[in-house]
Design goal:
Methylamine Dehydrogenase, Chain H
């Protein structure tokens, strides 16, 4: 299953399930992302091979003005439902096959506890945009965003409590190694670390003022952050020291994913995909066959991975990135992120496309 944002047709990944989102607030359950679905028009929906216990021809989508469409019979029928939210979603995270959260503009937080069958709006208490969300279990998580915003919940989002970041910079990435140790990264070279679950956030010295877009750790010591002008920084001591490694790219890097301390990928503007086999000391370009910005990346093993980006693009590799298969979906759509609960089940946020100031609901 996969949740996809901004979408006019779905690609399915058998056995590998995850979450995707983009310019809008649409969420759906999908599976079997390895083969293309039929091209769909506005308000249509499609899903297949749903392993979450629902009929294989059933899917759900939410769209403009908080609309939710439950698609049945392969998308030939749609039943309107109500989500109670509107706005763009920018990040999604699942801890298991049932529990997931998505965040976005104007402090939007929504949560599902039934694998995406239903989504419930939660009260963030803020109006700042939220750019990233991360949970370590179904109860404990963080959401970050504009003006140094860091929110924390210990009850699955029933209540969200602000934490003091000490900065007014935009925070765009968050990652926790466990319930105590975590990091956030953002504009103007901002990296903050906590060792007590966010009670205190301590600035880390990077020596640069480049804006960071994302951050990723494989344990409490080894991690990377990426950002503007091809920037990649690495730490091996939990962030006490950050070392810059040249990528050879000079574009904004938006996302990264590591399988272990050696093997990882970064993605970014102009279709950039780079792979490392030595923990980021050296980076080798991979052919994406696109010049579109790429924003989200996820691998389930050393061979199978997916990248998403603008212009309704999904890329898939089955050989660790030696070759990437482009899957072009509806025009004028932008996928922003993806998240997998495990290698068997997942969800995604899909479906509004924006053309200028006009919003069109597209469900797949």
């Amino acid at each position: 299953m996969i949740f996809i944002a901004k979408l006019a047709r779905v690609l399915i990944i058998p056995s590998f399930i995850g979450s995707l989102l983009g310019c809008g607030s649409v969420i759906s359950n999908y599976a079997d992302l390895d083969r293309p679905s039929p091209t769909l028009g506005q308000g249509e929906a499609y899903s297949s091979n749903n392993p979450a216990g629902q009929p294989s021809d059933t899917g759900r989508s939410v769209g403009s003005e908080g609309s939710i469409i439950k698609a049945t019979d392969g998308g030939t029928k749609g039943v309107p439902q109500k989500s109670g939210i509107t706005g763009q979603l920018d990040s999604v995270y699942f801890t298991d096959a049932n529990n997931g959260w998505a965040v976005g503009t104007n402090g939007i937080i929504i949560r599902t506890s039934d694998g995406g069958a239903t989504w419930i709006a939660q009260t963030s208490g803020i109006t700042e945009g939220l750019k990233s969300v991360f949970f370590i279990d179904p109860n404990i998580g963080w959401a970050v965003g504009g003006a140094g915003t860091i929110l924390m919940t210990s009850d699955g989002g029933v209540t969200w409590n602000p934490q003091t970041s000490g900065t007014r910079q935009w925070i765009r990435g968050v990652f926790f190694a466990n319930r105590d140790i975590g990091w956030v990264a953002g504009t103007a070279g901002t990296i903050l670390k906590t060792s007590d679950g966010g009670e205190n956030w301590i600035p880390q010295k990077t020596g640069i003022t480049t804006g960071f877009t994302n951050i990723f750790f494989i344990d409490s010591n080894i991690g990377w952050t990426v950002g503007s002008s091809g920037t990649v920084l690495k730490t091996t001591d939990g962030g006490a020291n950050w070392v810059s490694h040249s990528t050879g790219a000079h574009v904004r890097l938006n996302g990264l994913f590591f399988l272990d301390k050696n093997i990882g990928w970064v993605i970014g503007a102009t279709g950039t995909i780079l792979k490392t086999r030595d923990g980021g000391l050296t980076w080798n370009p991979q052919k994406s066959w696109t010049n579109e910005p790429l924003d989200g990346i996820y691998f389930v093993d050393k061979d199978s991975g997916w990248v998403v980006g603008s212009d309704a693009l999904i890329l898939r590799t089955r050989d660790g990135g030696l070759t990437w298969e482009p899957k072009k979906l509806a025009a004028k759509t932008w996928y922003k992120a993806l998240s997998f609960a495990n290698t068997q089940r997942g969800w995604g946020v899909k479906a509004i496309r924006c053309w200028g100031d006009d919003w069109f609901f597209i469900a797949n």
